[in-house]
Amino acid sequence: MHRRIRQWNPRWSLLVLLSALDVACSRSPAPAPPPAPVPVGTSRPATPPPVATPAAPAVNLEALADDLFERTNMARRNGGLTALARSVNLMSAAQLQADQMVKAGRMEHELSGQPYPTLKSRFAAVQYAARAAGENIAEGQRSAPQVVAAWMDSVKHRGNILSKDYTELGTGVAAARNGRLYFVAVFARPGTPAPARAARP
Question: What homologous superfamily is domain 65-190 in, according to CATH?
């Protein structure tokens, strides 16, 4: 489950100012000839200076990823389960996916066109052999509690958090240039890598 944020950009409207002069009449016995009409001109308004887009507030992404890790385990403990161990490899896999979603500009588990489009390929990149694995992603929230709350409201995402199949966890967070945040949690149980097949003679 993810949240979409609509951004509002102000638009400048240009006002065309028209100036006109009123003609005053004299009360003298001999009427004065009317003055020559003054042309009314339309001047081009000055272009307003560009308004700089406010910079997104700085976010400590590493601290946010750590908080996401702790909040996810808190949800497990609240469900009567043991906390998942932190895996350096899974942290790398989660961060890799968060960075790829920023680059692709979309939230997907499988990102076609990216170097590591699937969870399996990301495990291979960080040299992690998994017996069981799952992945939660989110986009647009501003804090770890918001993300975990959204996941717990989703049956599938909650299933990953409260699964007894997993023993390790990794989390990652990345920010786009506009400040939009992408969150990833990778759950897994490590397994023995499959033996290499002997090449045929």
Answer: CAP (3.40.33.10)
